[in-house]
Amino acid sequence: TKVTEFISQANGKTLFSIEIIPPVKGQNINELFDSIEPLMEYKPPFIDVTYHREELIDRVGTNGLIERIPVRKRPGTVGICARLMERFHVDAVPHVICGGFTREETEDVLFDLHYLGIDNVLVLRGDPEKSAGVFQAKKGGHTYASELVTQVHNMNNGILLNAETETAPTNFCIGVAGYPEKHFDATSFDTDYEHLRRKVELGANYIVTQMFFDNQKYFSFVERCRAEGITVPIIPGLKPLATKKQLSVLASIFHLEFPEDLVKAAMQCASDKDVRQVGIEWGVQQCRELLAYGVPVLHFYTMGKSDNVAQIAKQVF
Ligand code: FAD
Description:
The chain is α/β, with parallel strands linked by helices. It is built from eleven helices and ten strands. The protein has helices at residues 3-9, 29-36, 77-88, 103-115, 145-156, 189-201, 215-227, 245-254, 260-267, 272-293, 307-316, and strands at residues 15-20, 46-49, 55-60, 66-71, 91-97, 120-124, 173-178, 206-211, 234-238, 297-301. It is globular, with a radius of gyration of 20 Å. Flavin-adenine dinucleotide (FAD) is lined by residues 50-51, 53, 95, 97, 122, 124-127, 144-146, 177, 183, 185-186, 191-192, 195, 199, 208, 210, 237.
């Protein structure tokens, strides 16, 4: 089922969903599944699974010299999607990224997903490699998410990259990312909205936002999107604050501002256990307001631990 169909079938009722991150290579996948099991009570119709690019690491080669090799720290997105659907009877929404892939490699991954019966993909550019600082496409790969949206849209119309024969079309529902606090690479809010609108014009069916802690940022974002003629559903992405350190780490990784009241409440806490509680209370308030606004889905970034998401869901659904 397509994400947009879940939304329209809900008839205005807000849905619950989550994003999970593949474990570090070699770790037990069942631990991840066990950790999200309690969230199934809130009936997520779909679960997102992130995709991670390879990063260059230094290692000592057989000749004793240091060599740089690309290593994917968190592989397994496609396999995790298959297991998720089997174990929880939910739709899996794999993320598909431009970074580190040629167009042909991407086409192959999209066929894996299609053959698994996956109906949705969240199409992203991917972050820059840590060692590079700025995003660089792989030779033969896409530079912007909009190009990957076009590739998926073409596949949905039976158009492949180098096919000699006519092909059966795929039928992916396409999600893309939006940034209520502006994407860090964008020179201005105006150009960022322009690029977002372009992704929708090229075939994106819905938007999921970067996390935000101040609902006003989301409300302004939705208003501006509507003014730009973007009519697709805009799903708010949410992450409960869990530690004091996240105040600086999340702000710098995701380029967001924390509201003063939340910072103050967290800084007054004696321990991170108390910060976690503050994060839950803040999340509950945020969700209640978003529910009243009529958002289609409350979509949570679990980032490994999900007890706090369960506590929020328990209070708002
Ligand atoms: P784009 O839409 O391509 O935009 C990137 C930047 O380029 C923006 O500043 C945009 O304004 C600008 N731009 C776009 N088009 C043009 C153009 N034609 N000319 C000039 N500038 C242009 N990363 C992962 O690696 N794996 C994941 O699984 C993942 N999941 C995510 C899920 C969500 C909901 C979100 C919000 C982000 C996720 N990310 C993930 C992070 C994402 O890959 C980064 O934020 C990345 O830096 C941008 O991706 P994008 O798809 O928004 O890029």
